[in-house]
Each structure stands twice: as structure tokens, then as C-alpha cells.
Amino acid sequence: MSEKKKQPPAAAALNAARQRLSTGWPMPLFLQGAFEFLQAALFSAFLVVIPWFAVWFSGGFADRSIESVLKMGGQIWLLIHAVPLHLLQVGTGADPSQGSGLLDFTPLGLTLIPFFLCWRAGRRIARASYTDSLWQGILGALGVYLLCGLFTGFLVNNEEASVSLLAATLIPAIPAGAGVVIGARREAGSWGRLIGFDAAAWISKTSQHSRWAGSYVWAVLCGGTLAYMFTFALSSLLLAINLGVHWVDVSNVYQQLRPGAIGSAVLTLGQLGIMPNLALWTLAWITGGGFTLGVGSTLSTLETTVGPLPAVPVLAALPSGDLAYAWAFMGLPVLAGMLAGWYFLRVGENHLDDWVSKRIRSRWASLGLSTVALGVFVGAFAGALSLVGSWLAGGSLGIGRFTEVGPDVLMTALLLAAEVALGTAIGYLISPLLEHDPVLDG
Known about the structure:
With 442 residues, the chain is mainly α. The chain has 18 helices and seven strands. It has a four-stranded antiparallel β-sheet. The longest helix is centred in the middle third of the chain and has 38 residues. The chain starts with 8 loop residues before the first helix and ends with a helix.
């Protein structure tokens, strides 16, 4: 059999180049990440600008130029990324303090748009890279988003509103970065594959007491998260029911405004964008901490004082009438805490109770002490989550009385922590009576 004739080096290089041209060059990871986030930024911008253009074409902004409408769209794009806007000439009185204001109220429902777009991009970046090279795609993606924020902040400043270039550059990268990291983690399947660190192997090298302590802490964190999320779910359900009950009042406000078909659509989209905020306001209301709708207006299950409100249809569903028994809604966070206590019993990680029972022989005393500690720990973490949620849901509209809008951050967290702590203790103590698991019974 004759040997295959060896090609000259020049011919081999030429054939390799031809093959590469036919198959294409793989895109560098940082460039792919940049391209993915550029798509996310542009698509989220289109979703914001299109409604404004629709209103402009229908005559809603008859006195504005197309450049002015584009700048307003850019300002809204920054606002949904939690970038504060400095409003200028918002007041007409002689008081100079009425001439400007800070608008830092973030419509969380609209913030989910860039978040999920970046979440999708994170999954695509993780799918195209190895664990040790994932940082390249994420770095390229965040670099493009920083440039988009800087470019937008530079273009949207006008005589009505201004924005800090530093804030416009850095703050949009926070929801975008959260989206890409969570999306990459979702695609990788575990944090170990995502960051190249095997946490299970590291934990296996620690002592048994350290593993028990870690398991207890993790179960407490999961219980606190479960209690807070269940309270949020109950608040969302209560908000939906309240909107259904007051739907006639909401419709009457629409009829009085007469915004037209396009105006009604944009107004509805804007209200849908603040629905997560309203759900967090409802959470603050049921805890007793309450929320404010401008200086002098406070609503909670314990006290309600409402001043003049803007003509926003959804505000027609605010609690009104006889609220003598509204305090009963404060039992909902307690119910969420009971669910957390039941969860903690099911996972069987109460190693603090094992430790206490070895040092205090009286069972009622050891069980009582460990259960109180469990309630305090779970309630404290739920309260810490509430601090973040309430802070995100509030802010300032920068106009007149509405410089204070949203939940009472500290009071809501304290009351929620106390209510969840009480529910967790109760739930942990009564759950064995409801269980029929042979493992638990034994």
C-alpha cells in the first residue's frame, strides 16, 4: 500500500485556512457576552420607548419634539434600572425647594424586564463557556451595560431632569449583573460548576460539629426565606382580591380621566409595572408597619390617615371604610411563621436543641429555650429580608407631598420579625401533633 503523499507546508496552511473559512471562527467569550447584553439593553429600551412614541403619535405630547420624547424614554429606561432622576422646575410656588426634587421610585415590575433579559443572556453565556472561562463572558457583558448606561445618562439630560453620569453608569449593572449571575447559575446547575469551587468537598473536610452548625444555620435561612416569601404571596393574593372588590371604583377613575385607547394602555402598563411595589406595600400594611403615600398620609392595620391623592386608578382600591378589625390581618405573617416552623421540623436539622438538651436535663426547659431561639433566628432573617424589600418598594416621586412613598422600612421589619418569630415557635411545637411520619414518630 502506497504511503499518502505529504503536502507542502504552504499547501497545508492554505487548506487549513479554507477549512476555517468554511466552518467559521468561534466568537470570543467576552465578545459574545457583550453582544448578548447589547441585545438586552436595546430590547428593554425599545419596550420603554415604544409606548411613549405611541402616545406622541396620538397627540398626547403635542408640544414636544421627537428628540424630547426620546430623552423621556431614556430617562424612564434609567429609572427602571433604579437610577435616581433629579427633577427640575417641578414646582410653581415661590419656595425654591419646590423647584426641584429627587425621583428615585423604582417600578419593580418594569425592572423585571431587563433582569429577565439578562437572565436569558446569562444562560446563553454559561452554555457557551467552561467554568474557568465564564468570567470572560460576564465581564464583556457587564462592560457593554456600563457603556450603555453611561451613553444614556449623557444623552438624556435636559431642562426638566438630569442624572448623575456615575449613577447612570454603575447602577444599571446591578439588576443586569444579578440577572446574568442567576441565569448562569441556572444553566450550570450548581454554584460549584459556576465558580469552579466544590463546596460539598470543602464541607466534608470540616468537623462534625461544624457540619451540624452549618446545617442548622442553613435551615434557619431557608425557614426565614420561606416565611417572608409566603407572607409576600399572601400579600399579593390580598392585593388581587382587594382590586377585584374595588374594580368599579378603579373603572370610575379611568372614565373620569378619559385618557383614550393608547393613553389607557400606557396607564395600565405603568400600573402593572408597580404591582410588585403595591404587593410589598400590602405586606407592610398587614404587618402593622404600614406605608405612606405622601407626607401626612399613613395606612396600616393600626392607623389610617389619608390626604389628597393623585388620580391614579389603582389608588381607588386603597383600604377605606370601617377598619376596626383590620388588625386581624396581622395574623397572616404569624401563619407564615408557622409554615416555617413546620418546614424546620420536617428537615430535622434542629441541632441547637440537641446541644441544649445535653446541658439542660429538664426537657420542657431545653425545648422551650431552643424553640424560642429558633423563632428569634427565623424571625430576624425574615425581618432582614423585609428591610431589603421595603427599601426597594419605596422612594420619592420628587413632587410636592410625594417625597415620601412606600413602606415604613424599620417598623415593618421589626413587626414582621416579631410575628414570624411567634409563628415559627408555635408551628414548630404543634407540628409533631399533625405529623404521621414513622421517622418523626419514632
